[in-house]
Automatic annotation (TrEMBL):
The keyword Membrane applies. The chain crosses the membrane at residues 87-107, 113-133, 145-167, 173-195, 207-225, 245-266, 278-299, 305-326. This is EamA domain-containing protein. Belongs to the drug/metabolite transporter (DMT) superfamily. Plant drug/metabolite exporter (P-DME) (TC 2.A.7.4) family.
Length: 389
């Protein structure tokens, strides 16, 4: 306009050029949008400042999240993340059963009949296994290729449970416990016959060592005069005469044999279905109505108090996780190897009785505990089986 004039107009022209960027920025904001790609600092200056404030609003998550992640890593490592997962699952199951025994020792469920307790526990097993299947997206129907094995496992398991209850009611507790802990031996023999599993000498030696340790621990009770002549009673059931005692012993042996067969079927069903929860689910489906029938036939329904009911619920939840871990352990390892870990329950109970119950240590108990400890450590030392059957 006035470019042909003197220097003053040139200065005015320079001032107009200097003001034009600011005015253009104010009057035409679309230019900033067009040049946004060419000027990234304008977007990053303010965007960087906000994330710096967000972590300050959640200080607790930075503390709890690593702990939860650590627990999840431990659980996944025990379940399937280690070469020793089969042994670890069986050991975890035995520890949970030991905790259940401790709770029963501290808070005995005296007001609830035995079959009512079984019904409550089986109901909790059914509900929790159903929730497990729904949460993992697995079908609720049993797999067709494993259905017969799972049904047979449920039948043998429930009959073994009823036989064990009868032996406990009619025998001293020490005799019933001794027969019950012979189940791993029967399961190993059954696995050799039913599942065609080999039984190495190391497995035979481990089971023999653990059972001898159990005999040494129970020897003072088994050979005591009082245990042989005591009145065999529980839940107001009294048995007199030698024939009843012999019958109870044979029923206990029958329970042990069926328990061993049930272990073999648990392994076969878990391997066939590829999910150990189906073994628990199928057992609960069958055991719930049958235990309810047993309540109607053998006992009267007793309404438990609130504390007894809560204790039964806690024991049912613990029993579910113990059964799941037991089935997982049998799925991953040979029966003769993983079932030997169950004797750790005897070792833990002896430590509890000598530490908190005031039971005096004896040479037999110490030697028996050392034998069980050596057997369990030897089982873990030789490592897991490398065969996937």
């Amino acid at each position: 306009m006035a470019a042909a004039s003197g220097d003053g107009e040139v200065e005015i022209h320079v001032v107009e050029v200097a003001e034009s960027p600011s005015s253009s920025d104010e009057s035409s904001p679309l230019l900033a949008v067009d040049d946004a790609d060419n000027k990234p600092p304008r977007m990053t200056i303010f965007s960087v400042s906000y994330p710096r404030r967000e972590p300050l609003k959640e200080p607790s998550s930075s503390v709890t999240d690593p702990e939860i992640a650590f627990l999840n890593q431990i659980v996944s490592w025990i379940w399937s993340g280690s070469r020793h997962s089969g042994l670890l699952c069986m050991a975890s199951s035995s520890v949970i059963y030991y905790i259940m025994d401790v709770l029963l020792g501290i808070f005995p469920v005296g007001s609830a009949p035995i079959y009512q307790t079984v019904f409550t526990r089986c109901t909790i097993l059914l509900i929790m296994s159903f929730m497990w299947l729904k949460r993992t997206g697995l079908p609720l129907l049993l797999p067709t290729h494993a259905r017969n094995v799972l049904v047979l496992r449920s039948l043998t398991g429930f009959v073994s449970l009823l036989s064990f209850i009868y032996s406990v009611q009619n025998l001293p507790v020490s005799y019933a416990v001794l027969l019950n802990f012979a189940t791993p031996i029967m399961a190993s023999i059954g696995a050799m016959i039913i599942l065609q599993e080999k039984l190495p000498r190391s497995h035979i030696g481990g089971l023999t060592c653990s059972f001898i340790g159990l005999l040494l621990i129970l020897q003072p009770i088994l050979l005591s005069e009082g245990s042989l002549t005591e009145t065999f009673q529980m839940d107001n059931v009294v048995t007199d005469g030698r024939k009843d005692v012999i019958l109870a012993i044979f029923v206990g042996i029958f329970s042990t044999i069926l328990g061993g067969v049930s272990y073999c079927l648990i392994r076969a069903g878990a391997v066939a279905a590829d999910q150990p929860v189906y073994t628990v689910f199928s057992f609960a489906i069958l055991a719930c109505p049958l235990s309810a029938i047993c309540i109607l036939i053998f006992q009267e329904f007793v309404l438990p108090n609130l504390f007894t009911f809560l204790l039964m619920m806690v024991l049912g939840v613990l029993a579910f996780y113990a059964e799941i871990l037991l089935a997982r352990g049998l799925q991953l390892g040979r029966i003769a190897k993983v079932t030997n870990i169950q004797y750790i329950k005897v070792l833990l109970w002896q430590l509890w009785s000598m530490t908190y119950l005031g039971a005096g240590p004896s040479s037999n108990k110490i030697i028996g505990c050392l034998l069980i400890l050596a057997s369990v450590c030897g089982t873990a030392y030789f490592g897991p089986d490398k065969e996937n059957e």
